[in-house]
Amino acid sequence: MNEKRNDDTPREEDTARNSPHFSSSSHLAETHASRQHRTLQNKLDNAVLNLQCTEGELRSLAAHLFKAHEEERQHISRELHDDVSQRLSLVGMTLQQITGIGLRREDLERLRSARRQVETLNNDLRNLSHRLHPSILVDLGLPAALKALVEEFGERENMPATFVSQDLPESWPPIAALSLYRIAQEALRNVAKHAGKTHVKVILSGAGGSLQLRVTDFGVGFDQESEMASRGLGMISMQERAGLAGGVLAVRSALGEGTTVTAEVPLEHHA
Q: How large is the C-alpha radius of gyration of the chain?
């Protein structure tokens, strides 16, 4: 007959668990796990720090590239306006001084055509110079520059285009003005390229310590989920422009409902 086991008799597993060897092994395992956790946490912290540094370096590089780009635009614009445009004006004046007396009818028509072509070319050159570096942005300010940009767009693309400014603050940083102007340029280019013939409305307004630009078209729109990535460098450029001024950019669109690009930048930005 088997002897009845006494409930007070320690079981083997309890005895092993309470042994000094078991306690030491458990402590070593916990210590090892804690060290692994700290090591992984340190690696994660370093990775986050490196990523933040990389993002900061990329933002700094983007700012440098945009600055260099603007300086090159300004240089080319000045060359076009002060040199090439002046030469074309001289050619036009010379052609105007030719009376055409004694010329055959077909030669006289060629002379008149040459005058018109020189005048058209000179106007196109001035417009190109203006788009490269809008001196009006410095001379008359952002609202006037945007108004001229929208009017020129409407005439060039044969679209109804309106500009409205409202609740504007007394002043804003130059980087904010330049960023919003370039964003407006790119947004209007996208309208001309993708929206089809439609009405475009550009609104510049002040909103609680920030300056907001909204470009709305009532064109074909697009599916943001499937087409956002394919919008290319233009969309990236607008986002970077807003970011460099300390602001944000949002795009809302749907098929058949048009597109709205909204950029908002702070009135005080510390780079």
A: 34
DSSP class per residue in 9-48? SPPHHHHHHTSHHHHHHHHHHHHHHHHHHHHHHHHHHHHH
pTM: 0.63
Sheet containing strand 210-217, strands side by side = 161-166, 200-206, 210-217, 259-266, 248-253
The mean pLDDT value of the chain amounts to: 78
Question: DSSP per residue over 164-190, as a string?
Answer: EEES--S---HHHHHHHHHHHHHHHHH
Evaluate the CA torsion angle 135, 138, 141, 146 in order and state its sign. positive
Count Cβ atoms below 10 Å from residue 5 Cβ, excluding itself: 8
Q: What is the dihedral of CA 179, 185, 187, 193, to 10 degrees?
A: -150
Per residue in 217-256, pLDDT (tens digit) is: 988 888 777 655 555 677 888 888 898 888 999 999 888 8
Cα angle: 262, vertex 133, 91; to 5 degrees:
140
The pLDDT, as a whole number, for residue 204 is 96
Q: How far apart are CA 22 and CA 20, in angstroms?
A: 6
Task: Return d(Cα 198, Cα 158) in angstroms, integer.
Answer: 9
Q: Give residue-wise pLDDT tens across range 18-51.
A: 555 555 666 666 776 777 777 777 777 777 766 6
- Residues paired with residue 205 on neighbouring β-strands, in sequence order: 166, 212
Q: What gap in Å lies between CA 117 and CA 110, rounded to an integer? A: 10
What domains are defined for the chain?
14-133 (no CATH), 141-271 (3.30.565.10)
Amino acid type, 36:
Q
DSSP string for 229-255: GGGTHHHHHHHHHHHHTT-EEEEEE-T
